[in-house]
Amino acid sequence: MRVHFMSDFKLLVTGCKGRMGQAVIDAADAQGVPVGAAIDVGDSLAAALELSHCVIDFTSHHFTDELLAECLKQKKSMVIGTTGHTSDELARIKEASKTLPIVFASNFSVGVNTLFWLTRKATELLGPDFDLEVIEMHHRLKKDSPSGTARTLVEILADVRGLEYDKDCRHGRFGDVGARTPKEIGVHAIRGGDVVGDHTVVFANVGERVELTHKASSRDTFAGGAVRAARWLHGKPAGLYDMQDVLGLK
Ligand code: NAD
Predict the structure, then answer these.
(1) Known catalytic residue at 138
(2) CATH code of the domain occupying 11-104+219-246
(3) Cis upstream peptide for 34 (omega within 30°)
(4) Burial annotation 93-123 (CB, 10 A radius, 16+ → b, else e)
(5) Level-2 CATH architecture, domain 110-216
(6) What is the number of helices (H) and of strands (E) in the chain?
(7) Among this protein's residues, is 171 annotated catalytic?
(8) Domain ranges in the chain?
(9) What residues form DSSP beta bridges with 189?
(10) Mind listing the pLDDT tens digit for each residue in 171-230?
(11) N vs C: which end of the chain shows fewer Cβ within 10 Å?
């Protein structure tokens, strides 16, 4: 017999035909959280949302504005796992979180959130003499680049060094680009096969190098984390939370 989290609490899973949507439906079942509705392209968002208390979204950033508007209208909480948002879309998520409780995380795995913590610590300890580079690899079908997780890693590095993502991030290198500057943070996206998600942060100095690596071999870790986030979010006040909040790492 499956024990249900709360008999009247129901999830809406958006992108239910996708890789993550499928994994979220399985994870919800494993955690005893009922799925009230599951939709993909062409289905009615408004009708599905009425049947649910919280949405877990792994779709496309092009869908986020429509989803935010409907969740604001129906006052539903949100777990957003979709990545690749523009600065304007990110600002609208932040604005909506003044009214709604939202967990927005570029990665829902315990391992990657530990990597975030370790990256901050290592950057602080190693100091400004180490050059910073981030390398990520994902399956051949991934659309956005760099990954949301790589972006979060660069944001952590930039935050510790007093740099800015938009200004100091260097996406790949091609041609006669000259020597690397001490300030730049390099980001490199590799695509191929069925890789679920690999991320390495390189701290390179003259004579030594530190590398922190996480490799995901299953989407279940992201999906399980997203369902855990939805459960944690239930009853929370409006605000923008991330997985570090859910895991109590702050
Ligand atoms: P996918 O292409 O397998 O699935 C996306 C699904 O969303 C598809 O079925 C698509 O039809 C559906 N969709 C797109 N637009 C829609 C709309 N307007 N309405 C309803 N459904 C819509 O992709 P995926 O691998 O499942 O990844 C989805 C997103 O999640 C990507 O942005 C990816 O980067 C991100 N992701 C995040 C994490 C994390 O931990 N935060 C982990 C893995 C993937």
Answers:
(1) yes
(2) 3.40.50.720
(3) no
(4) beebbeebbbbbbbbbbbebbebbeebeebb
(5) 2-Layer Sandwich (3.30)
(6) 9, 11
(7) no
(8) 11-104+219-246, 110-216
(9) 136
(10) 999 999 999 999 999 999 999 999 999 999 999 999 999 999 999 999 999 999 999 999
(11) N
User: Which ligand 1 atom is at minimum distance from the Cα of 109?
Assistant: 40
- 9-62 pLDDT, tens per residue? 999 999 999 999 999 999 999 999 999 999 999 999 999 999 999 999 999 999
Atom of ligand 1 nearest to the CA of 105: 41
Q: Which of 83, 86, 153 for a ligand 1 pocket mutation test, highest count of atoms within 8 Å of Cβ?
A: 83
**Which among 238, 247, 244 has a CA at the least distance from the CA of 94?**
238
CA distance 34 to 9: 7
Tell me, yes or no, if the two domains 11-104+219-246 and 110-216 fold the same way.
no
